[in-house]
Amino acid sequence: QxxxxxxxxxxxxxxxxxxxxxxxxxxxxxxxxxxxxxxxxKSPELIMFIYSNGDKEDGRFTAQLNKASQYVxxxxxxxxxxxxxTYLCAVPPWAxxxxxxxxxxxxxxxxxx
Amino acid sequence: xxxVSQHPSRVICKSGTSVKIECRSLDFQATTMFWYRQxxxxxxxxxxxxxxxxxxxxxQGVEKDKFLINHASLTLSTLTVTSAHPEDSSFYIxxxxxxxxxxxxxxxxxxxxxLTVV
Lengths: 113, 118
Description:
The complex is a heterodimer. By secondary structure, chain A is mainly β. The model of chain A has no long low-confidence stretch (mean pLDDT 91). Chain A has strands at 4-5, 11-14, 19-25, 33-38, 45-50, 54-58, 61-66, 71-76, 85-91, 102-103, 107-112. Helix content of chain A is 0%, strand content 50%. Chain A is globular and about 45 Å long. By secondary structure, chain B is an all-beta fold. Chain B contains no helices and eleven strands. Chain B has strands at residues 4-7, 10-13, 19-25, 32-38, 44-51, 57-58, 67-73, 76-81, 90-99, 105-109, 113-117. Classes of the chains: A mainly beta, B mainly beta. At the A-B interface, strand 5 and strand 10 of A face strand 5, strand 9 and strand 10 of B.
């Protein structure tokens, strides 16, 4: 089993819809979870992070964490064509606070006008 | 947020030559930096952890003699791809760690370097 798993997609949604991106992780000790957006040919940029079970909202983005199920998701409301990118879930392994991040393979999102 | 600058953004080199990639933290001191490699349509693969003033820690399967890492100061880490071959062609990305809490850190990424070995 991969340490961090995502559906590679592509996930296609119409403009204005809600896009739901999912991620599962294997390390039960992981404490924090990050979502990055990566446009083609560019490096990742942080969207948001979540530490606690439940929901965390930031503008059109909502991260949801369920540690019991080892599941973290990202919802994008009112999706825009500019949201079309690859979304990477990243989890630091629980082996001390090393700053390492293990990335999932990423989900490609396509928002159609 | 913190700024990490990576240079060059693109490089084309001949097979057998060496290429150096620089990663600088511009507005903070980074005791730890990370080097990733990304193949087309694939995720980021951690290559090594660069620690200021000490040897880098390489991930399993990464050749340390092939990918030389130097972290001589708190603001600069370099990755040198030695005797590059076409299979080394990839997107290389560095990141620097910023502690945001007792248990958690945040990573800021450089712009990435597209290496093409011909």
